[in-house]
Amino acid sequence: MKIKIIIKIILFILPLFCLAQSDKIFISATLDSITKNISVKQKITFFNNTGYTLDKIYLHAAANSYSNTNTVLGKRKLEDRNKSLYFSKYLNRGRINDLTIFIDKRQPVFLLRDFEFYEINLFNPLLPNDSISLNLNYNIKVPYDKITGYGYSSKGTYLLKNFFIQPLDFDKSKPKLESFTDTEFNPYRKTDYSIVFYYPNDLYIEGDLVKEGDHILKGTNYDAVTVLLTKNKPLSFLYEIDGIQTEVTIGYPIKEELKELYYKNIQRELSFLKEKLGTLPAKIFISSKIKKDRNFVGVDNINLFGLKEWVMFSDDIKIDLKMFQQIAYLTINQIIKLDKNKYHWISNGLLTYYQLKYLKKYYPDTKLLGDLPDDFSILKIKPLKYFFISKVPLIDRYKLGYRYIATQNYDQPINENFLELSNINQYIISGFKSGLSFNFLSEYLSQGIFESSIRKLIQERREKEVNALYFQKFLEDVSHENLDWFFQKYISTNDRINFKIKKFYDNKNDTNNIKIRITNKTALAVPILITAEKNKQVINQKWIFSTKKDSVYTFINGDYSKLLINKNYIFPEINDNDNLLNTEGIYKNKKKLQMKFYADVDNPNYTQIFYEPNINWNNYDKFILGLRFYNSSPFSRPFEYSFSPTYSTGTKSLTGAASLNYNYDMENGIFRRISLGSGYNFYHYDKDLSYKKYSGNLNFLFKKRPRSEINRTIGISFNSVEREKNPSKLWEKDDYSHYNLLDISYSHSDNRLINEWYSKTNFQHSNMFNKISSEIYFRHEYAPNKKITLRYFGGYFITNNSNSTYFDFGVDHITDYSFNYMDYLGRSATSGLFYQQYIMAEGGFKSILDKSANKWITSLNGEIHLWKLLDIYADIGLYNNKAKPTKFIYDTGIKLNIIPEFLEFYLPIQSTLGFEPAKDSYLSHIRFTFNFNLSAVINHFRKGWY
Q1: Alpha helices in 1-142 (DSSP H)
Q2: Does 945 score more than 60 pLDDT?
Q3: Helix axis angle, 259-277 relative to 344-362, nearest 10°?
Q4: What is the 3-state secondary structure (H, E, C) of 522-549?
Q5: What pTM value is reported for the model?
Q6: Residue 45's beta-bridge partner residues?
Q7: 3-class SS at 359?
Q8: pLDDT in tens, 910-940
Q9: Sheet order of strands, 166-167 included
Q10: Residue 446: closest CA among 474, 479, 489
Q11: Which of 40, 220, 211 is nearest to 138 (CA)?
């Protein structure tokens, strides 16, 4: 009987014991620092814990992802606007060479799939809970570190991760064939490592495993191991926090005078994390890669081209904030096991959540701009102190980051797979929004319940993976709250939280309570907190659960000065500017009005109108001086307006412009945004001759894949133009003093890094003509920072009853009869400097040919980079006028890029006119572009991020 009991106990314990089994890897590696090769002898013991019989196992050779530009890594790096792999030389790329595999001294058949995965056919099926050993011999060609941060550096340092061959994990019976993407997570299994590394005597070894002697690293890891070989001995600190010993090793150089600051700050950071998480890893290794990828952005000094440097934060604060981010990231990812593609938001959200708590505890009064408002001055004036952003606390960085992306309608659901997130959303959504959402959950459940649940979760799941369902159940069991609204709906939707407190009024039937009307603009069912204040002190608070778009809630009556929802931004809301009502005074049931000089971040206590000087210039108005009043801020609004009354110094008369625009962001459907706008302009187009332009436009912006650079837009616009006629030519008949234009266009752009292209097709109708045109622009980078550009333009008049050349297709100049180019300095000039201004439009010729086409035109413009700021260009084309033969034209020359795309000069050489440098007054043949467009600058720098 006892024997049967013992057998049953063994049968019960054995599967549990098997589940705890780890793969084992022994590596003997030798570095050749001359050839940048590592010779490897490796033994892998693979344990089948899948519960299925396997006839194949899979090995991951992530080093092969560096071998060419067609790998997943190669394609993703281009998406990230990183050209280092694309333009790297063969000798600087990584790969596995000379691989041999033996199982019991026999060589199995194996196949390389998708550059990275070795499919090994086993001689015999591998049963569940059984293991098999493989002996490998191969060479690693180490890539240079400019591609991912891993590899060899110009300073002789080697940071190695994901270069040794690893066994892949399985999802039931299917291998996780997940390519290396340089996202710090891979489909590997818990593995016991033993590494013996031979290297030149002038190097030191370190890594995330325990160091045993000068050549041996040992330990258990759930990820690929990190090994550092460096000429400078890495700095290590040993701490004991509440009985737990933790070694922190910094794998990048630290200034001697700062080491004490590092030691002190890391000790405080570890103590904080131990309190919050309940445990700490035995070793934390911070590599230069982690330092770069997990940098605390926004605290570094500001350097003005080496001429002036402003210190925003002291070394003590900078070190603390940066090290906390790095240490907290490594700690959380070591002690919480999860699928980082599916459940990245759990680990990254907790990282941001604890950053919020750390800032709140140690830096509650530190401002977002640090000491910059005090240090930055112009003529002893400190302008930044005037702006509200100088008063914004550092902790609001997460709020501002999320709101910026959300108001652009570029955010994504929290539980979107990490690999599908755009570059900016890997920070904003996976980090900022998830962390703010955990803060929301913590406030709702109470901070004590949330944080104690996390500690308990870590303790119970130390060796097991966590997923969303388990996380939800765990929190529900502890809090006794139904959290379906958060885990099943909120994190899965792109609907944003957006409330507005509209009005409060007395409850006639109950004097002890008041009624508050609140609008839930997206009808997203979430709890919200109502707060009542008096003299900035909280008097009453109440949680309510909002499920309808417009609801009235009962709240305790009292002596209040303000009613607020979402006080202190406890949940991520797209717009918190309408969350406050005054309950007394002349601003009762509304907010105060504030006029603010220059745009600023929103101050939720006021309804703001911004104003700023408006200074412009053209050859007819001369200096245009005035003020612009507007409501747009760094955060896109549904309704935006701009009014700009100005004074023309050239004509000594009033001029100006105005615009109204409404943006409707769509969560569902094929469009990302529908924009409806109208405008009015009144300026001068010639000496003492004014024009008025009334415009209306409707734009449909298509949705796109978040990591895609493709943008598509349908535009419909109507322009009505009134031009003042020259009094000396009133007797002349013309058809362009008053005209209306209807434009319908479709544009498609793909702003990829190497091959960028743009196309636009436009149909234009007026009572005098109908025309259609098409433009295709292509730019190819054929070597680092060397590009070839081609542009095609074709235009055709379907009908043309105009009696002038005013509406013709321009060959080398455009009349801009739509008045769209506000940087056109001398639009009516026929000679002189302003006639030399060049705008890339229609025919696009640089030589001054003084030609136009009233029937059709086709042209091809080309440029190729020559040297530094110099390009060479060439244009060819055909054009036709009614009742005249078709003409062929061409030009060539040199382009001087002072500020590319903004200030450029064109020096013609050979053209239809002949050899132009030999012409009289050659300087009058030189063309220039001047295009200062702030939105173009912003779009240029945001490429690749969203």
Answers
A1: 2-19, 72-79
A2: no
A3: 120
A4: CCCCEEEEEEEEECCEEEEEEEEEECCC
A5: 0.90
A6: 24, 133
A7: helix
A8: 999 999 999 999 999 999 998 765 555 555 5
A9: 110-113, 117-126, 54-60, 166-167
A10: 479
A11: 40
